[in-house]
Specification:
Strand content of chain A: 15-25%
Shape of chain B: globular
Keywords (chain B): Cell membrane, Electron transport, Flavoprotein, FMN, Heme, Iron, Membrane, Metal-binding, Transmembrane, Transmembrane helix, Transport
CATH superfamily of chain A: Oxidoreductase, molybdopterin-binding domain
Order of helices and strands of chain A: HHHHEEHEEHEHEHEEEEHEE
Strand content of chain B: under 5%
Number of strands of chain A: 12
Structural class of chain B: mainly alpha
Number of helices of chain A: 9
Number of helices of chain B: 12
Largest sheet of chain A: 7 strands, mixed
Membrane topology (chain B): Multi-pass membrane protein
CATH topology of chain A: Sulfite Oxidase, Chain A, domain 2
Cofactor (chain B): FMN; heme b
Helix content of chain A: 10-25%
Distance between the termini of chain B: 37 Å
InterPro entries (chain B): Fe3_Rdtase_TM_dom, MsrQ-like
Radius of gyration of chain B: 20 Å
Number of domains of chain B: 1
Largest sheet of chain B: none
Order of helices and strands of chain B: HHHHHHHHHHHH
Oligomer: heterodimer
Number of domains of chain A: 1
Protein name (chain B): Protein-methionine-sulfoxide reductase heme-binding subunit MsrQ
Bound molecules: protoporphyrin IX containing FE
Shape of chain A: globular
Chain lengths: ~300, ~210
């Protein structure tokens, strides 16, 4: 059932291609005058204007390609995404190895302009294209005792320098509780700015959960499993004190090493001011999923 | 004539002052690139600049620590450049701290909170504090006033400063990248090279010396 959620940002908010390609140059031009950049602060970006394609695709975390923010943009080209097979298994009626075309067949692609908040206290606004995860789950048939959805990222050591240097354990894995996965906000993205997903953004298929820190939105998915127990999640495994399984955006729960109360919108230049982080990244409609939970403990 | 003597002879004609110009010029060049989103600065210049200044500061601290072991073990004497290296290290830490304060965290209240609450920032801050008296006394007048012995003792603060800087780096990264450990390894190696090995051997193996006598 697509279209269950309506953008508070509309397709009209997506800057025409010529503009989003040029804004960077414009900023660079004026920034040379220093004083103007200073006065401009966050370049008067309003909360709804999507970041430029350049911003979205040159500042990424995708440790398979290295830990630097520009490593994914520099190295992801080597990843092979065609053919692409997604294994669906576990507590489902229609398990199997699906080609991307088979998996997405019949699902409605829509545009969603979402805020994106990284656990590192920076944020963007991203115009995704994709479908609701709930629709995909309906298609594969979730069985009654499934409680969680587990996801896995592709591993191609020969094409992924970060995997070879083993900075963290691969494959990268993530998971959602089933009700989170079924929420109409939760989507599987296949496109960005009207074009197929760039590789550094998680081509050809990635999760997008806008009320959680970005690392939950796992990229380049090759496996989806319906399971009964809470699945493993990479950062949660590495450091459970710093990265909870839920990892909902929460200005009241600091990362032990930095504050989560504020964030910096990417694209504001050297003098960008911080803005307040919103509970659930501003997506209050998910609050009821966590009724009765102490989110400062189950973070 | 040994290689070290030749090198030292050549270095005699190289003045130290261009290091200040190079160091300051590079700092401005980095800032200018960050301002214009050039080179490595891309779309999020603040964090990149903060890290850039921090990394250069650590490299300079390590460079300063190599001067003495290099002289002890190879005879190559870079001592006349050491003040410039040390002062530049301090100014890069200062710039690093200013980027953190003014551009990144932005309010005094938050700076205080971060310094108190985040151990890796606390550690960096202690390193910064340790460098302040060194920077203030890095001039001939101070050496005369304090006296060379006490001055040298005071300037041993570079050891904890470098250790704290490297620890700060290890503490702030996610996952297990190699660089921070390489820096820490370099600091530890350079400190170990300073130990008085004859004395240590005497303490560790006293019996052997007795039987030898
Ligand atoms: C001896 C003094 C210091 C040294 C040698 C030092 C060195 C470094 C280095 C090497 C990095 C990482 C660079 C990289 O990733 O390439 C860094 C990052 C950082 N330092 Fe320092 N630092 C010092 C003092 C301070 C002080 C006084 C503060 C703030 C009060 C501070 C705050 C930070 C922050 C916030 C980061 C970046 C963390 C991030 O990117 O998330 N440092 N520093």
């Amino acid at each position: 059932m697509a279209h269950r959620w309506k953008n508070d940002m509309t397709p009209a908010d997506v800057t025409p291609k010529s503009l989003f390609l040029n804004r960077r140059q414009l900023i660079a031009g004026t920034a040379g005058l220093g004083a103007i950049a200073m006065a401009g602060g966050a370049q008067a970006q309003d909360a709804m204007t999507p970041n430029t394609l350049e911003e979205i695709t040159t500042y990424n975390n995708f440790y398979e390609f290295g830990t630097g923010k520009s490593d994914p943009a520099n190295n992801a080209e080597a990843m092979v995404i065609d053919p692409w097979t997604v294994t669906v298994d576990g507590l489902v009626d229609n398990p199997g190895d699906y080609s991307l075309a088979d998996l997405t067949e019949g699902l409605t692609i829509e545009e969603r302009i979402y805020r994106f908040r990284c656990v590192e206290a920076w944020s963007m606004v991203v115009p995704w294209q994709g479908f609701e995860l709930a629709d995909l789950l309906a298609k594969v048939g979730v069985q009654g005792d499934a409680k969680y959805v587990a996801f896995e990222t592709v591993v191609q050591p020969e094409n992924m320098p970060g995997v070879r240097s083993r900075v963290i354990d691969f494959p990268y894995v993530e998971g959602l509780r089933l009700d989170e996965a079924m929420h109409p906000l939760t989507m599987m993205a296949t496109g960005l700015y009207g074009a197929p997903l760039p590789k550094q953004s998680g081509a050809p298929l990635r999760l997008v959960v806008p009320w959680k820190y970005g690392f939950k939105s796992i990229k380049s998915i090759v496996k989806i499993s319906l399971v009964a127990e809470q699945p493993e999640a990479t950062w949660n495994n590495i450091n459970p004190r710093e990265y909870g399984f839920y990892s909902n955006v929460n200005p009241g729960v600091d990362h032990p090493r930095w504050s989560q109360a504020t964030e910096r919108r990417i694209g504001g230049g050297l003098f960008a001011s911080r803005q307040d982080t919103l509970m659930f990244n501003g997506y209050d409609e998910v609050a009821s999923l966590y009724d009765g939970m102490d989110l400062s403990k189950e973070f | 004539m040994s290689a070290a003597t030749t090198i030292n002879g050549g270095l005699r004609r190289v003045p130290a002052w261009p290091l200040y110009i190079l160091g300051a010029g590079y700092m401005v060049w980095e800032f200018w690139q960050a301002l214009n989103g050039l080179g490595p600065y891309g779309v999020e210049p603040i964090n990149v600049l903060e890290r850039e200044y921090g990394e250069i500061a650590l490299i300079l601290l390590i460079a300063g620590l190599t001067v003495t072991p290099l002289r002890t073990w190879t005879g190559v004497n870079l001592i006349k450049f050491r003040r410039a290296i040390g002062l530049l290290a301090f100014f890069y830490v200062l710039a690093h701290f200013l980027v953190f304060t003014v551009l990144d965290v932005q309010t005094i209240g938050r700076v205080v909170t971060e310094v108190i609450k985040r151990p890796y920032v606390t550690v960096g801050f202690l390193g910064f504090l340790a460098l302040i008296p060194l920077a203030v006394t890095s001039n001939n007048w101070s050496i005369r006033r304090i006296g060379p012995v006490r001055w040298r003792r005071l300037h041993k603060l570079t050891y904890p400063a470098a250790l704290l800087g490297a620890l700060h780096y290890i503490w702030l990264v996610k996952g297990w990248p190699l660089e921070p450990f390489l820096y820490m390894g370099a600091v530890i190696a350079l400190l170990v090279l300073r130990l008085n090995w004859t004395k240590i051997r005497a303490i560790l193996i006293p019996s052997r010396q007795q039987t030898n006598s």
